[in-house]
UniProtKB/TrEMBL annotation:
Gene3D superfamilies: Vaccinia Virus protein VP39 (3.40.50.150). Signal peptide: none annotated. Residues 1-233 form the CheR-type methyltransferase domain. It comes from the Bacteria. InterPro entries: Bact_Chemotaxis_MeTrfase, CheR_C, CheR_MeTrfase, SAM-dependent_MTases_sf. PANTHER family: CHEMOTAXIS PROTEIN METHYLTRANSFERASE (PTHR24422), CHEMOTAXIS PROTEIN METHYLTRANSFERASE 2 (PTHR24422:SF10). Pfam families: CheR (PF01739). This is CheR-type methyltransferase domain-containing protein.
Amino acid sequence: MDALAIEDVGQYRQYLDAHPQEWQVLDGFLPITISRFWRDRRVFELLEHRFLPELARRAREEGAAALALWSLGCGAGEEPYTFSILWRERLQSRFPGLGLTILASDIEAHQLARAEQACYPASALKDLPRPLKGAAFERRDALYCLKHEYRRAVELERRDIRGEFPARRFHLIACRHLAFTYFNRELQCDIARRLHRALHPGGLLVLGNKEALPEEVPGFEPSHGQVRVYRRREGEDTEYP
C-alpha cells in the first residue's frame, strides 16, 4: 500500500478489483518463512520412537527400496533435514537395506536457495538435541552447515501446494503450519483430499499442533491423542471428484 500510495485497505481492495495482476504481488508477501530444526519436540519424539519405525517395518515388508517422505512448505530445509538427521543417526541401523527419500517443496525460491546452501544460525538449531547437532553440523564462522551425507536424501523442489501434486505416493507427508492454518475451508478440503491420494494406504499425515483436518473429508483417522498425526485408513482408496 505504501508503494502504491494507497491510504487504506478499502482503497487497496478497489485497486485489486481494477488490477487483477496485483493479486500475484500480494500473494508474494504472504508466506511465513520462520522455522527451525526439531520444531515441536513431542512430534519428533513420536516420529522417532513410534511412527517412523512402524512405517519402515511396513515398507520393508512390502519390498519398498526406500521410505518416501514429503515435506511441504519446507522453508530453508529445516524440517526435511531434521527427518534426514533423525533417520541417519537413530533409525537407519535398525532397518538395513531400506533407504530414505525426502521430497522438500516450497513456493519461495530464495528459501530453497538457502536450503541448498544448508547453513544456519545457532537460533535455528536451538531445539535440536545436542548429539544430533554435533553429528550432523560443522561450524563455519557464525553459521552451522549441514554435512553433505545428511543432504543426499533430500530433493529440493519449487512447488505451490495449491497447484499440482507429485505423481507418486508417500509413506509420510508433513504439512505443518501451512494449508490448515492459512487457507480457507474450501481450499483446505481440496488439499486434504489430494493429500489422501498422495499417501500410501496406512501412510501418515503430520499437521501442526494447532491444526486439524476438515471434518467433511473422509479417509483419515487420528493416530495419537496429543499430536496432529492422521493415518490414511487401510483398505480405502476413496476417489474424490
